[in-house]
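User: Round two. Same drill as before: sequence, then structure, for each protein.

Assistant: Same drill it is. First protein:
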Amino acid sequence: MALRFLGKDPGSPSGGSPTLYYDESDDTYVVQGWKVTDPELLAQMDIPDHETVVRIPRRMTQFFSEVNGG
């Protein structure tokens, strides 16, 4: 796995999370974010056992090249 760092949340007080990476080996994004634990929200999604859900702030879309024409 060849992860390429794309960016950290510029609004994060500690500068540690959320973070976005690009995995060059399989052309996917790897997202580090706040774990979603709210049962009401989770009930609205069909999440397979092998997946999890995280939140990232909207301002992080700047790091997705597709959003920015790159």
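Second protein:
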Amino acid sequence: MNTTEFNQLNDYHDLAEYLKSEVKKIDIKTSSDEKNTNLFSLQRFMKEFINKNLNYLIM
């Protein structure tokens, strides 16, 4: 997900739908290398999301 797509997430419902779609990509049939890549991408996105929304999440 790039910055433009990230900025288009206007609520937590959108975030939940995005995460749900990303997790579906990581299934049993996926190779280990692909799983690692998908998990790394998801982890990077979550870190970026938390960093951008930390003040709101703390309140």
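The chain is about 75% helix and 0% strand.

User: Perfect.
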